[in-house]
Amino acid sequence: MARLGDIATYVNGFAFKPSDWSNEGLPIIRIQDLTGNSYQANCYNGSYHPKYEVNDGDVLISWSASLGVYVWKGEKAVLNQHIFKVVFDKSEVDKNFFVHQVQNILENAASEAHGATMKHLTKPVFDALPFYLPSIEKQKEIASVLDKVTELIALRKEQLAKLDELVKARFVELFENNNYPVIKLGEVCTKITDGTHKTPTYLESGITFISAKNIVNGELDFSDIKYISEQEYAEIQKRCQTEIGDILLSKSGSLGSPVIVRTTQKLGLFESLAVIKYDRDRLLPEFLCEQLKTDRIQRQFKVGTKGVAIKHLHLGVIADTGIIVPSIEEQNQFAAFVEQTDKSKSEIQKSLEKLETLKKALMLKYFG
To answer: Whole-angstrom Cα distance, residue 359 to residue 177?
Structure first.
């Protein structure tokens, strides 16, 4: 065993200010550029110390707000603060072995991170984290196994993404260029509202309480939920009550992400979620949900968002959004295609979950 601080040198990025940003020059790598949540790329066009330079293949570790380890795949760039660039200058270590183990270390160390809202690891805590350091041959052997499982996981995720793209392409083919009349969404809805605007008291068990963060990859994700009392749910129920087939839409966070409610269980909703109750004789949930994902609708949502620091999608904007309403027969044709695609996605998802379980087991075996 060794300490993480004995394995390599960790160079913290430079504290670029907004006044340093430019429309040209080298990209500035921020945490959101690593996590895939960046909506705007910033560049730097001035002089810099070589230690802040990042090239293709460099290992980066975000230690604040979002803990993670990444291998940079891209053009030459410069590094922003709160991210370490790893310089392998202290011990003989295989890079892939290092990345896999640090991923495991950071997941385990998250509970030790300081800060209630913004999690971060202090440098002394980071350097003191234990690191398993066998022979270089053993490192390469372990890395090879984990690389293969990781590649299979990435493949399954790519397959799921391609099926989603296939559904989008089918929607465009059937509906986008047929000159259907456009009407306001509110005209075919019986109710458009959102969840409670008060933060409830959370319990160890009770009624499931969800927010926009529970919409993951087009589905409701119940792996990280909170619970509220029957009394608080009763108050929320007066404002909104979900039924199978309703559409939930994120009003903040990943703005405009829709999902179909497919459960009969009671759901308490936070204000970051809107619930759309529509005329079931005129719209099918599969059709409406997919239409809300289209670039045409997403552009309308983007124009209608309010707020400087935290963007919000207001209920009035949702109600005024222009949609098309083809015949139920045409919608049924599309829904049948979605159903067949979902069956394929379900099988791939099962395979993905098994692979992720296998990877966790291997990480536990190798790194404890």
So the answer is: 45
Side chain identity, residue 218:
G
**4, 127 Cβ separation under 8 angstroms:** yes
Specify whether the CB–CB gap between 60 and 72 falls below 8 A: yes
Amino acid type, 220: L
Asked whether the CA dihedral 65, 128, 49, 57 is positive or negative, the reply is: negative
Beta strands 189-194; 43-44: pairing state = unpaired
**Sequence letter at residue 76:** K
pTM, full prediction: 0.79
Determine contact, residues 233/213, Cβ cutoff 8 Å: no
CA–CA dist 56, 76 (Å, integer): 7
Q: How sure is the predictor about 308, in pLDDT bands with cuts at 50, 70 and 90?
A: low
HEC-encoded secondary structure of 246-273: CEEEECCCCCCCEEECCCCCCEEEECCE
Q: Is the pLDDT of residue 115 over 60?
A: no
